[in-house]
Amino acid sequence: MGRTPSFERSVVVDAARDVFWRRGYAEAGIAELEEVTGLTRSSIYNAFGSKRGLFDAVLAAYLDDVVRSRLRPLGSGDPGALEAYVAEMRDAIAADTPRARLGCLLLNAGSSSLASDDAEVRALVSGYAAEMRAAIRAAVADRRPDLTPDAVDALAAVCASLVVAGLTLARADRDAALATLASIPTTLHSWGPAPA
To answer: Which of 44, 53, 178, 191 fits a 20 to 30 Å CA distance from 154?
Structure first.
């Protein structure tokens, strides 16, 4: 019978998240992961199967804890939900914390060399993008009931693209990221007929 792990899985995943977020999958060394998690290499491998298994756990937790918690209010019927979502992201980036300077972990993973070689990472990032687009589309429909479904689709695609651009720029150019995100409410209000 195997031993029961004597660590809190979520604490380990959160500690590893910072390493993968800062350095990327390829550059994150197992020694650094041992140091931040407090686990030995064998404990990491026993608990997660591999460094890649730990990375997968980090991405899944990030998707659930960070992304989905922010997307959940979109499409709730609140016409101001999209503006609130964008304001929350802008506030996080403007706070200039170490995590905010790193951009979006999932978008970073999607633009890494790992994604070009790994169908699972591509599928995870593609699923995230689809989930975000659907949530933004629902929020646009709530905010702009005056638009046709095709116009809602087009406006939602533009807003989602601006979100992705802003989150991607956060890593390299905070001011450009903030300006990109700030353009979303203007785009939302100026698209097609004026909202009531």
So the answer is: 178
